[in-house]
Amino acid sequence: MKAGKLSDSALRRSVIKQLHNSSDDILLQSGVGVDGSRIAWNCDEDVVLSMDPITLSRERIGWLGICAALNDVACAGATPIAVLVSILLPTSASEQLLRDILGDMRLACDPHGIAIIGGHTEVTRAVREPLVTVTGVGRVHKSHRMDAKDIAPDMDIVATKWIGLEGTAILASEKYEELAERFTKPFLDQAKAFYNYIPIWSEAAVAVKSGAGAMHDVSEGGIYGALWDMAERAGVGLEIDLQRIPIRQETVEICEFFNLNPYKLLGGGCALIAAKDGESLVQAMERANIPAVVIGRTTDSNDRILFRGEDRRFLETTQTDELRRVFD
């Protein structure tokens, strides 16, 4: 099979079709456009779980693993509280590498009071590179529901921060010497600092408080992939203004260097939020010092349209992330 996320058809045919939920306690399980599962817990709260591996990076994989799993938890409207981690190391790895991975995980968790409560660590010939997988755990009040299935036509789509942040940070870190032949050190150091933007827990909290309809993190496949997943789950059309999608100049120039499409670039740090009143949500984000902008709306059509001025075209199904063109 081709490297990257499974196609929607393969995911439905070979994975989701094999999963059967027979328990009333399972309120939501993962699927197309759904990156976390929700389980009834007590009379007031439910538990949200999500799992993510890190396969597109070699650096900061501890940080990225925590962010990926807990971003999914936050997008379900839950407050992250804990993680379980699996770390598989090749026989060539050092114990210092293991300490560095755990140290990076603690940098992500400790300031937010998030506990690393267990997992598994192993050295194995089954991997050639370190492989980190993180399961995020969160709790959510029963009254808080964040599911793209509840998105209706004529809702605004809000994007937070900027697209391509995670992919830009990875490229600036792992291709630093190559990029340094064209770009200055301050420029590349700024791009590497995009790692700090990847957690989206703060904007998720604002979205929940503002009564947003649903939230989806921009991850593998970039904003195009996230828009497709959200619309597919909701069964709605889209009209998205490409000129309004926020992007940093560092991302533009690094993508031009490698001839990559930034709209299909790993986008951790950016969140898509569906809201009845997108401008009010943007103002709430701005009060929390989180950049945000309305980039389009949902429609009652099956068409998912991207437009730039008078030019219009259809959004395609989820594509392979652009990072794989560089590293694979």
Concise account of the structure shown:
By secondary structure, this protein is of the alpha+beta class.
Q: What's the structural blueprint in terms of helices and strands?
A:
Layout: H1 8-14, E1 26-28, E2 37-40, E3 45-54, H2 61-75, E4 79-89, H3 95-109, E5 115-123, E6 131-141, E7 156-160, H4 165-174, H5 176-179, H6 185-192, H7 201-209, E8 214-217, H8 222-234, E9 237-241, H9 249-258, E10 271-275, H10 278-287, E11 292-299, E12 304-308, E13 311-314, H11 323-327
Parallel strand pairs: 4-5, 9-12
Antiparallel strand pairs: 1-2, 2-3, 3-6, 4-6, 7-10, 7-11, 8-10, 9-11, 12-13
Helix pairs in contact: 2-3, 4-6, 4-9
Q: Mind summarizing the main beta sheet?
A: 7 strands, mixed
The SSE order reads HEEEHEHEEEHHHHEHEHEHEEEH
Span between termini: 14 Å
Structural class assignment:
alpha+beta
Q: Please, what is the oligomeric state? A: single chain
Number of distinct helices: 11
Note the beta-strand portion. 25-35%
* Mean pLDDT reading: 91
What can you see in these coordinates?
The chain is built from 11 helices and 13 strands. It starts with 7 loop residues before the first helix and ends with a helix. The model has no long low-confidence stretch (mean pLDDT 91). The protein is globular and about 55 Å long. 32% of the residues lie in helices and 26% in strands. With 328 residues, it is an alpha+beta fold. Strands 8-10-7-11-9-12-13 form a 7-stranded mixed β-sheet, with helices on both faces. A 6-stranded mixed β-sheet has the order 1-2-3-6-4-5, with helices on one face.
